[in-house]
Amino acid sequence: MERGATVATTWQGRRVEAFIPAPMPRSVDLPERVVRATERAAAALQRTDDRLTHRYEPLARLLLRAEGVASSYIEGVRAPAELVAVAEADAGAVDATSAWVADNLAVVDASLVHARSSAALTSDELHRWYARLMAHGALPDELVGQYRRVQNWIGGPSPRRAAYVPPPPDHVARLMRDLIRVTNSSKLDPVTLGAVVHAQFEAIHPYGDGNGRLGRVLLGWVLARRAGVAVPPPVSVVIARDPGGYLSGLTRWRQGDVAGWVGWVADAVSRSADQVGELVGQAEELRSRWEVLLVDVRADATARRVLDLLPRHLVVSAPMVAEVFQVSAPTARAAIETLVARGILSPLDLRPLRPGRPAQWWMAAELVSVVSRWSR
After folding, report:
1. How many other β-carbons are positioned within 10 Å of the β-carbon of residue 149?
2. What angle do CA 130, 131, 137 make, to 5 degrees?
3. What is the pTM of this model?
4. Using CA of residue 319, residue 111, residue 244, residue 203, what is the dihedral sign?
5. Helix pair 172-185, 190-204: axis angle to 10 deg
6. pLDDT bracket for residue 1 (50, 70, 90)
7. Are residues 184 and 308 in the same domain?
8. With left for phi above 0 and alpha for psi between -120 and 50, is residue 77 left, alpha or beta?
9. Which end is more exposed in the chain, N or C (fewer Cβ atoms within 10 Å of the end residue's Cβ)?
10. H-helix or E-strand containing 346?
11. Do 288 and 365 reside in the same domain of the chain?
């Protein structure tokens, strides 16, 4: 693969060196060991998908949550899983950091809905994901929902002392058109294509902020679309545990080491898929314990039905339960009280961020702990 080129540009009137990546490769010549690694990763994707499809569907939401939380964690953004869950339902009820992570989860959701459709990837779709990703970000409005128009950089106080300086802004649209065209038409296997697309996106760094998070969303989109899986394993969890390997892999990609990068991603996909069993097993164990705690409660009672809601939301409120299950407010409150009395739910105390009486939330503390430990 071509290595791209370094070009001179200016930043605040001073000369800096920026990198323009080569066009996306239409084919990739990989050594047999890397080809085998991509095949193992593809098989692991299918095993994960089969497990979620045939066992306990709400657990898929736990994987999406782990992906969004871990992807934000890689960027140094940390928020309690229970507050992120509240932010998904009511962003104004919690701090901006929790809402920021919830935005990441929303984009992961949107990308997988799109991956399951027949629609082609477009720049407009990427812009929509980016606008949602930055809903609670600090970027000026004119930089949200479009490619950047200024020079950016990675690491260091300025592009003159940066770890990496992406292409000047006037190259971004052309490079992204090429990336999108190849993403839609490539005959590469899902794992290799996902690795190549993600690395090229990060090399272009097309937006003003959030490129790492959106690039990992794009990796998940490729895996879901091309491997035909409903929910890919949360690769960001593995990346968060090996950030050095991840960053050095991206550097090797820019230097032309396609095999090294693809092999690293294939291994990360395999490890993530294999570790899904850990999360699923812990969640299923909790569910079994909860069922025992509710052994004297009718099978069709709202309290039992709420158990299916917890992996999706981690926290619930009486209005949420009433709306989801189409029951009265007293019935919803009674169901929550039953789960609190059995030790399944506990109250979540939130500091009011706006006038008026705050909504009362309850969380599945043990499940929150499982997700929090596994995502970091």
Report:
1. 11
2. 95
3. 0.92
4. negative
5. 170
6. low
7. no
8. beta
9. C
10. strand 346-348
11. yes
